# Entry
Amino acid sequence: MEHPYGYIKDGKVFLKGFLGKPDREIGEVKEDETSTLNYFEARFEQIKDKVAKLKADIQENQNKGSFLMKLIHLRDSLFESDALGDFIPLIEELNEQEAYLNEIIQSNRTKNLEVKKGLILEAEAMKNDTDWKETAEKFKELKLRWIKTGPVDKEIHEEIEKEFNDAVQTFFENRRHFFEGLALQAEENIKVYEALVVQAREAHDLPDAKMAFEISKRIQKEWKEAGKVPAEKRQPLWDEFSKLNNRIFSRYKRGLNPGPQMHPREVLKKIEAMVEELKKMAHQPSSFQITSRAKAIQEDWKKLPQRKPKEANLPARSYQFFMDIIFEKAFLEKLSHSKYEDFDQKPITEQNQIKSSILKDLLHRDQTELETMQSNSENFRVQTPDFEMMMRKKLSGLKRKVDVKNYILKQLSPR
# Structure
């Protein structure tokens, strides 16, 4: 059975060849030849509708170039479609639409190239700026405009992209190198500050007040000349550094104005009187009156000559020991009240148990620190006598803290 665009042969439906294509089998007869031909004609009408719809979409939409690939796929599918009809006008119509789209796309790509060249000029003008924050924001906005700008011809796409990206990368690489340099310099500067703090500690522990003062003046000048570091890292170092230098200066100033000269026997007598009073106070429960009196005795001690007689060495150690007991007991009292609001209402035995428990925790920490310092002291040995003296003073101070806490624990234990 014949059809203007095909035929039926041996129960098979064929589409006549067109545009150089051979005849092609597109189906077979199901019920009868007429209904079969009607079916394939209807399929052709559906294809016509698709072409018409695509053409309407192209006309109605602003971004016409986005339909190019859809058009090409639809046109290619016409050569493989199982339908009966005149495909040549449809293909020609799609060819016309493709030419129309290519013309629009080429025009857009020319415009896109001009826009992107302008963006490259902007990027080139900014790539060596050192206003890092503001320029970085400008580059982010520039990159967004670049992304929103459509494509250019494939032949120059890579070249254009490289020009723009090179300019952008130059700025951000410069910025990265700058901040990496700042970070490295800050690390070196921190080492300088830390070294100055160590020198301040060593000067503070020197027995010669004048030598300590001379070192203090030098390292304070070096501190002012040291480079920048983040404030949060510099501040703790400065707190310790300034405190040590203030103490060095105070000691030096006292040495310049020693006050009236005292006979060594009188000095020893005053020290022994202070120790005797402190010893009595150290055996009493902590109170505001006792800590106030201890502070007053500290002020009297400062008024004594810096150089004390040899006979005062042992009483001086007792002075420090009992003074530490008084302030340790005051600290323990404060901790106990902070942990228990009703501490004063508890029986004395329970109060002593609470204090003992707190004190044992503090003692364990001090003992651990002392043992660590003792075991590592060999590693810190150097040839300078001042450093060795500093280490001995630290070990002595830690041992005294342990002895003080053990002494108070013994007082608190039930008899």
Q: What stands out?
A: The first helix runs from residue 33 to 60. Residues 370 and 395 are 7 Å apart (CA to CA). The chain has twelve helices and four strands. The chain has a mean pLDDT of 86.
